[in-house]
């Protein structure tokens, strides 16, 4: 029976050197819902408090809508539920298989064919290779990509990739479904087809958590709702009561109204000017006029953070390394976890990481710098999943980056241990 429990969950993100850039700091503070504070004892670190003291209890049959302004913390909460973000404080317990429909292309390899990526994405969803082969024809037919499925997906357009990712992600209903806003999935005909499939898909799911600015969509899909502001839950209850409370708070605070209902469950965000100068000028005008609904907050934050983060690849590669290290720690410390599926997953993550760093020295440097940080996160996560004390695992990462990515090496086996010894000697 599926369930979700969150107890006093908080998530914060440090932004280094931002306090020294007053214009940028004011932009972040005015455009995001999280609260910004200076780290104690430092004038070079600011902390964006994305979630604060979130308590949540969901059981089978719950369909909950997340309501709030841009940057209120809705997407961060979904990413915590999906296991993408680890909370700084509090406890998260998710019982049941989970599929996030806000990052549906996760785990897909641009150098592999469409057919190969169907299998690969299925492995990330927890299915076996044989189960995915049984669904292969149905998924292929739904995508309408034909012979393109025999080509590497790096040759696909964005719409074609979205079709493939959507078809795989909705090929099997999970226990828990996480949806963030809309999903752009192609032309109008395919949107209608995808909308019908998503409707059937959601009917089979035990728990749905949906974040949307569409009042009509939340009314149609949800029986409960949470109202979020600045990373906190400020209201909860029936969908209608929470939407009414949201409108009242908007009217009292001069905020904008909820956007007009979407015609489909699946929609893409409105386009923003491609010219950076035109976008910056337009965004500045929206901010001066208080038109928060018109601001592309995701892009604004990315642009601002890029000013203080000269290494944009580091977060991405650190996430890859953290996931890989978690799998290897569990493999090493729990012999019962050494399944063929886990081995295939480890191999695929290694392959993906190798592709990311193969020809880019900057990414290699970012990976090497991120290894210890990734291991620290992986150590905590693995200990929690295995229900053991963190102190039982090595305090520092016991392997180098080349060994970590060596697909012939697996810890906990005699041959592998010999390989570790020889490679350590070579590294020394």
Largest sheet strand order: 6-7-8-4-9-10
| Count of β-strands | 10
CATH topology of one domain: Rossmann fold
User: From N to C, what is the helix and strand string?
Assistant: EHEEEHEEHHHEHEHEEHHHHHHHH
Q: Which architecture of one domain would the CATH scheme give at its second level? A: 3-Layer(aba) Sandwich
Helix/strand structural class? alpha/beta
Poorly predicted runs: 17-24, 40-44, 254-274, 308-312
List the helices and strands and how they pair.
Blueprint: E1 3-16, H1 22-31, E2 35-38, E3 45-59, E4 63-67, H2 74-81, E5 89-95, E6 98-100, H3 114-124, H4 129-143, H5 158-169, E7 176-180, H6 188-203, E8 207-211, H7 215-221, E9 224-229, E10 232-238, H8 239-253, H9 276-289, H10 297-308, H11 313-333, H12 340-357, H13 361-386, H14 401-404, H15 414-427
Parallel strand pairs: 4-8, 4-9, 6-7, 7-8
Antiparallel strand pairs: 1-3, 1-5, 2-3, 9-10
Helix pairs in contact: 1-10, 3-4, 3-5, 4-5, 11-12, 11-13
Explained architecture:
The chain is of the alpha/beta class and 428 residues long. Among the domains are: 57-101 and 170-277, Rossmann fold (3-Layer(aba) Sandwich), CATH 3.40.50.300; 313-427, no CATH class. The protein contains 15 helices and 10 strands. It has helices spanning 22-31, 74-81, 114-124, 129-143, 158-169, 188-203, 215-221, 239-253, 276-289, 297-308, 313-333, 340-357, 361-386, 401-404, 414-427; strands at 3-16, 35-38, 45-59, 63-67, 89-95, 98-100, 176-180, 207-211, 224-229, 232-238. The strands form 2 sheets. A 6-stranded mixed β-sheet has the order 6-7-8-4-9-10, sandwiched between helices. α1 runs antiparallel to α10 (297-308), α11 packs antiparallel against α12 (340-357) and α11 (313-333) packs across α13 (361-386). The protein is globular. Mean pLDDT is 75; it is low at 17-24, 40-44, 254-274 and 308-312.
